Amino acid sequence: MFRVYTLLLSLTVFAAPAHALPRIDLGIRSIEHPMFQVSELAMSLDGEDLVLEASQAEVAGQQVKDLRIRCRQWRMGSGVSCQRGEFRLHLRDFGEVSGQLSVEFRSAEYAWLHASGANLGGFRLRLARKGQHTEAQLQLPAMPAPEALRVATLLDLKLPFQVDGQLRLNLDAESRGSEWTADFDGAVETLSFSEASGRFASDSLGLRFDGEATYGAERRVKLNLETTTGQVYVEPVFLDLAASPLALELEATQTSNGWQLGADLRQEQTLHARFDGILDRSGRARNGVLSAQAQTLEPVFAQFVQPFLIGTPLQQLQLTGRAEARLKLRLGAPASLSARLHALSLADPGLSIELRDLDGELHWYADGEAPPSVLDWSGGRVQEIPFERSHLSFAATPRGLRLLEPWRQPLLDGALLVRRFTLRHADTTTPTAELDAELEPIDLQQLCRALGWPEFRGRLGGRLPGLNVDNNIWTLDGQLQAQAFDGSLTLSGLRVVDPFGVVPSVDAGISLRQIDLALLTQAFSFGRIEGRIDGDIDGLRLLNWRPVAMDAHLYSSPGGGYTRRISQRAIDHISAIGGGPTGLLSRGVLGFFNDFAYAEIGWRCSLDNGTCRMGGVGPAEDDGFYIVRGRLLPRIDVIGHNRRVAWDRLLHQIEAALAADAPEIE
């Protein structure tokens, strides 16, 4: 089994009395064996006292230095016996290990060994072999965590951690023939670890574990693990395991291609997750099913999902309710997903989105169209726009979805009706969509109130053309046409960037035709204006839904066929907005007239860098401009004089005019 390259270097037999054993000294330069190598071995036997020393050795790939074994009671007869033994050795990357040793070796089928020491938390090792039966027992009553880390280094497990705490382990193993079975239990107590980057850490972590293993023709492991105390941080997830302990049950059987794994993870009264499938040799899941049930979504979402949303537009998202999900893997990739939602509510204060009492089921297949997905909810809001109960049915495709039936979402005393919607290439930065939708007339006053705008009465409705989304940039094919105030509104060139982000931006052009001014002004104390107006707003740009640039022109609709009258109060307010005097009509004979005829009305604003450059229907004296050009007697002209006005101030003046006094009765 081994070769002695240098035979006897020195063999000295000292003369001794007949009743005493001779002293023997033996030196061997090297011994080589498939399992071990020894260099510079020296043996000294003096009666029953045996000492073995080696400068270095290699056992199972581990470097050993300064090996010394002493047997105070050494006997040879039918076998070899070492009682009251001591050993000391030095392991690379670990340090010195020493302790007590007792060995008896009678034959290859009968032997035993007992060893113990102060290292490794006061370890105790017992090995016994009788025939084909071998038993092994290892006890580590209180192994310091730094020593456990050094043991991991010996096994080529490079863990870049600084650790504190201790490990307790009991292992009972036995073999009959070539198959080993083992039972083990133990605990990790007050474990604290960290690494240089700060991505992984724990504080006062406590674990209990037990299990069994089989190694032979079949290789199988069963493990039960339960956390008891402490906190763990694995970037970006932080878990307080004292408040919310976790329990893991795992069973794995080795196959020719990897491991057949069954794992069960529980968090009491909160989460239950299970995986059944195949791991390849690298530990990656190849085929299997992952299922999860969240009895209470709020803590599960806060612990395991929300940390990944930090720094994204969804970082303030909150979820409550219950849910179950099932994910099937095939060749390492998702093959199907299904989920059931129960009384789920979501809210995001940052995006001003809320959805209440969501129930339903979701289905998705990687290959082909999935079974119908159905969702119902009781209400919610987007920004401050509320919406009511609705029902949605759609079919998910591998890279998109299609509506199975028209979807009607009631809101603001009207509804959004989507007759047809198909989304394709949703997994790319250039998804495409087909949309056939209509806005059933909604209450304009409620909409303005929800958006914080000046309140206009009437209703708003119209057709919605095709929608395109590219890298969070939303655009419409063609024009959006709507009806409001007995006229029409056309929105063209719409481009919305990051609509649900922190600072959304909007670019568009708007044209107004035949807007009824009586319907537009009747709700306000601003004053009554009769007539119709057209408008063109080019280059409109909104940031966070507030105008920052535009070239706006409002003017009387061409042609006749409609009354053109303006009230005294409206003249005063328009004059104030244009920078002219107010209250003049109420002084003198004109105060007896409630309203006046006008020929045309108009206003221009070129907004840039917070300033509005104003104009009207034409120039007037003293560098002024006509906002209202009078007609007939008594004739009243409204002339503006402030050609440059701060936009915020102008908005304040308009809002003040709209809210001034009580409505006049004419």
Structure explained in plain terms:
The protein is mainly β and 666 residues long. The protein folds into four domains: 1-106, no CATH class; 108-254; 282-384, no CATH class; 485-659, no CATH class. It has seven helices and 46 strands. The protein has a 46-stranded antiparallel β-sheet that branches. Helix 6 runs antiparallel to helix 7 (647-659).
Main sheet record: 46 strands, antiparallel
Which term fits the overall shape? elongated
Q: How many strand segments?
A: 46
Rg is 43 Å
Sequence-ordered SSE layout with sheet pairings:
Blueprint: E1 3-4, E2 23-32, E3 36-46, E4 49-59, E5 62-76, E6 80-91, E7 95-107, E8 110-116, H1 119-122, E9 124-130, E10 133-144, H2 145-154, E11 162-176, E12 179-194, E13 200-215, E14 220-234, E15 237-240, E16 246-254, E17 258-267, E18 271-280, E19 285-294, H3 297-304, E20 318-330, E21 333-348, E22 353-365, E23 373-377, E24 379-382, E25 385-387, E26 390-397, E27 400-403, E28 407-411, E29 414-424, E30 432-443, H4 444-451, E31 459-464, E32 467-470, E33 473-476, E34 480-484, E35 487-497, E36 505-516, H5 517-521, E37 529-530, E38 532-543, E39 546-556, E40 565-567, H6 568-578, E41 595-608, E42 611-615, E43 618-620, E44 624-630, E45 638-640, E46 644-646, H7 647-659
Antiparallel strand pairs: 1-2, 2-3, 3-4, 4-5, 5-6, 6-7, 7-8, 8-9, 9-10, 10-11, 11-12, 12-13, 13-14, 14-15, 14-16, 16-17, 17-18, 18-19, 19-20, 20-21, 21-22, 22-23, 22-24, 23-26, 24-25, 26-27, 27-29, 28-29, 29-30, 30-31, 31-34, 32-33, 33-35, 34-35, 35-36, 36-38, 37-40, 38-39, 39-41, 40-41, ...
